[in-house]
Amino acid sequence: MKHLITRRQFLMSTALAAGSAALGGCATRSTVVRAVPRRVSPNEKLNIGIIGCGGKGASDAAGVAGENIIALCDVDEIVLNRAAKKYPGAKLYRDFRRMLDEVKTLDAVTISTPDHQHAPAAMRAITRGLHVYVQKPLTHNIWEARQLTEAARRHRVATQMGNQGTSSEEIRRLVEMIQADAIGHVREVHLWTNRPIWPQGKDRPPGSDPVPAHLDWDLWLGPAPVRPFKDKYPDEKRHVYHPFCWRGWWDFGTGALGDIACHTMNAPMWALKLGAPVSVEVVDAAEVKKESFPSWSIIRWDFAARGNLPPVKLFWYDGGQCPPTPPEMEDRHFNKEHGALYIGDKGKIYAGRLLPESRMKEFTPPPATIPRIPGGDHYQDWLIACKGGRPACSSFDFAGPLTELVLLGNIALRLGRKIGWDARRLRVPHCSEAGQHIRRAYRKGWEPA
């Protein structure tokens, strides 16, 4: 995907280069030990550590199980022991900091923790010269995304974010259609999802519960402020935080946007050559609580013209919201739970097909110009990169700017108003309040360093 990486770097290189001067909060480049990865031939197996073994961590481990899984880490002992039965030769850890310090033979790690732990784990791995596969969203805040993108380049490690659709045939066909002028200049994009499927729009429940013996709550909190453990809501059977409902809390998750938008904004970012937006605004939303994401929202990003490409408006809907059914729909079902709609000067694309549907009968797909990923295997795409092959398709050169784009929507939600965006300096102009949401405060010992 040589030409694709070049385009990504062109779009964001100015912002990233300038941003590095403004983001000197950690060690300076002159004091960083520039560890680089061990050379591994395509016929060798990598030594991989798994950070986060439950949920997506289990499937991420399975995706790389053809290599040598030599270390497992999870704060939940039940989850850790379950993984140990599948990979009996691996060393077991509860704290990824210890694992990364002690296991000297690692080549790479997968990171499948709650969002707030992504950057602390990934940065420690990168600075040790380890390749990293990080679940989406790449980070919990925008500053972290920029830091990881620059660190990965500096240490020359292979990276991949876990938005598997970026390796698919479908996204390549869509990008080729749009860039072949199938619907003319695209001026609007609408993306929607049925998320959240966990509680949001709630206040923190009062009181505390005993921490289960199998869970290390302090390690689970990691960089986030200390708070008491609470198991379930008093009026329902849903868990409050662990193992799944952390997504709805500002301190730990990134809401519906963080969960899904890295799977759906990747296509318009790629197809329309989107860089950073000029502004983001909340069109409408449920009440935004101090500690919890709203139960639903509609958000809009505006992008300036790019060369001969016109300005673009990108709309996001979650929590049961969606755009109106396109009048060009014929017999096809319009899925109101999730979808993507592209509106161009000469037509529309819904679910990867032209509207009205009858146009597809006469449409000749453009030639395949974008390199395909064999089998659409997102893990193998990363492993090939780890062994000296081409960069993975969702490497941090792509995933970093994508994550920044996604998380800007959450900043607009926090601030409750339309915001401008200065990507070079990572700042919202004329809004000092935004700084705490661009870069969080970290508990001592948990900084991304």
What report would you give on this structure?
There is one protein chain. The protein is 31% helix and 16% strand. The protein has 14 helices and 14 strands. It has helices spanning 2-22, 56-63, 77-86, 96-102, 118-126, 142-155, 169-179, 217-221, 255-264, 266-271, 359-362, 378-386, 396-415, 435-438; strands at 47-51, 68-73, 91-93, 108-111, 131-135, 159-162, 186-192, 279-285, 297-303, 312-318, 339-344, 347-350, 353-355, 419-420. Strand 1, helix 2 and strand 2 (68-73) form a beta-alpha-beta unit. The longest helix is centred in the first third of the chain and has 21 residues, at 2-22. The chain is globular, with a radius of gyration of 22 Å. 46% of the residues are buried.
Descriptive terms for the model:
single chain, alpha/beta, eight-stranded mixed β-sheet, Rossmann fold, 14 helices, 31% helix, 16% strand, 14 strands, globular, 449 residues, six-stranded parallel β-sheet, disordered N terminus
Topology:
Elements: H1 2-22, E1 47-51, H2 56-63, E2 68-73, H3 77-86, E3 91-93, H4 96-102, E4 108-111, H5 118-126, E5 131-135, H6 142-155, E6 159-162, H7 169-179, E7 186-192, H8 217-221, H9 255-264, H10 266-271, E8 279-285, E9 297-303, E10 312-318, E11 339-344, E12 347-350, E13 353-355, H11 359-362, H12 378-386, H13 396-415, E14 419-420, H14 435-438
Parallel strand pairs: 1-2, 1-4, 2-3, 4-5, 5-6, 7-10
Antiparallel strand pairs: 7-11, 8-9, 8-14, 9-10, 11-12, 12-13
Helix pairs in contact: 5-6, 6-13, 9-13
